[in-house]
Amino acid sequence: MNLNLYYFDSCPYCQKVLRKINELNLKSITYSDTMKDPSNREKLINDTGRATVPCLYIDGKPMHESDDIVNWLEANKENIS
Ligand SMILES: N[C@@H](CCC(=O)N[C@@H](CS)C(=O)NCC(=O)O)C(=O)O
Question: What CATH number has the domain bearing residue 55?
Fold first, then answer.
C-alpha cells in the first residue's frame, strides 16, 4: 500500500495525524510539505479542488479530514508496513 501525507508543520490537524503515525510506529509513509514546496500545494489543489491539509493519499486516492485519516490508520495499521 502506498501512503503519502500532504501536510505542513504548523497545522494542528496535521500534528494530530502525525502523532497517530508516531504512536502506531508507521514507517512507510512518505510526506509532502505544502508550505515548503508550492508544487505540492498545486498538486493537492489540482487533485482535490482545495489546499486543505492534512490529506492522506492512499494508493493515489486522496482522503481529507484528520479524524477520518486517524480512524483509517487505526483500522488499517496491520496492513501498513
Ligand atoms: N476539518 C479539517 C480541518 C483542516 C484545516 O482546517 N486545515 C488548515 C490548516 S490548519 C488548512 O489546510 N487551511 C487551508 C485551506 O483549507 O486552504 C481536518 O480536521 O482535517
Answer: 3.40.30.10
> Residue 73: which domain range?
3-79
State in Å: Cα 72 to ligand 1 middle: 18
Q: Does the bond joining 54 to the residue before it have cis omega, within 30 degrees of 0? A: yes
pLDDT in tens, the chain (81 residues): 999 999 999 999 999 999 999 999 999 999 999 999 999 999 999 999 999 999 999 999 999 999 999 999 999 999 997
Reported pTM: 0.97
Q: Are 70 and 54 in contact (CB under 8 A)?
A: no
54 CA to middle of ligand 1, Å? 7
Total number of domains constituting the chain = 1
- Nearest ligand 1 atom to alpha carbon 69: 20
